[in-house]
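Technical note accompanying the year-one report. For the benefit of new consortium partners, we illustrate the data format agreed upon in the data management plan: each record pairs a sequence with a structure-token string. No post-processing was applied to the example shown here.
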Amino acid sequence: MYSIDEIRDRINKGAKIFQTADGTCGYMLVPWEGKPGEYDLCNVFRTPGGTPGAGKAAVADAISRGATTLDCLGDRLAEIYHAFGFKVYKVEPFNDAYAPPDWDYAKNGRPNVYYMRYIGGTRDLQEIIRRAETGYYGRFKAKDYPPGYEEK
């Protein structure tokens, strides 16, 4: 997750922010230099009062707009992104040096950081949603991706 200053910097360099009309869900696409139409998916959020399922809808929308990579914390988020066609290519253990100042270790622990790339091959929004809903990509198995894993 980027800080406000980092987000402003990325917007100045071409990042795009998408948000629901009520502001309870959104994400940012950061363009990859030298790769027109390809983006890193960042800062996906849904507030506690937001519409259930809006976060998943945001992921599908981001893919339809060109999201190709992302990184996320923990098995649950990796499982969600996997359902939408993202595949793990690298795993790093949680690094305390990069934790937000208010990180609650008792509540959140030290989850792995998963780096993922989109392998779905479609940008059709309805097909992206259909695949996610039907389990097209199979089940995510965190045990297959221990800390230190890197795709060869």
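Partners are asked to follow this layout when depositing records. The beta strands are 16-19, 25-31, 39-46, 67-73, 86-92, 113-118.
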